[in-house]
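Sequence, please.
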């Protein structure tokens, strides 16, 4: 059984027991959260696709940790203009463990 959820403006295919990193969610570590934006639920041959969301479907997950991703380096340059700009960015994330998918 798996589901497609939407969180942080992105879509993720999740199954029970998986861990995934999503955009930062303001929740405490070891707390359980409910993801209600479920776009699709599949259980074997039965597939339920929402328009846009599946009615009554929820995914329950536990917050494992919070962290920051790899550093992305941004370098801008205009040739022959003496313009160079360096910048870095590290995106915050929340690691979730999927506990239950219910339709």
């Amino acid at each position: 059984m798996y589901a497609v959820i939407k969180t942080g403006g992105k879509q993720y295919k999740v199954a029970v027991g998986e861990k995934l990193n999503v955009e930062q969610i303001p929740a405490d570590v070891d707390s359980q959260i409910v993801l209600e934006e479920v776009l699709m639920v599949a259980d074997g041959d039965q597939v339920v696709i929402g328009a846009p969301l599946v009615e009554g479907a929820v995914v329950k997950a536990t917050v494992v940790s919070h962290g920051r991703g790899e550093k992305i380096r941004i370098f801008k340059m205009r040739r022959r203009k003496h313009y160079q700009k360096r910048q870095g960015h590290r995106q915050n994330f929340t690691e979730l463990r999927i506990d239950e998918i219910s339709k």
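The two ends are 11 Å apart (CA to CA).
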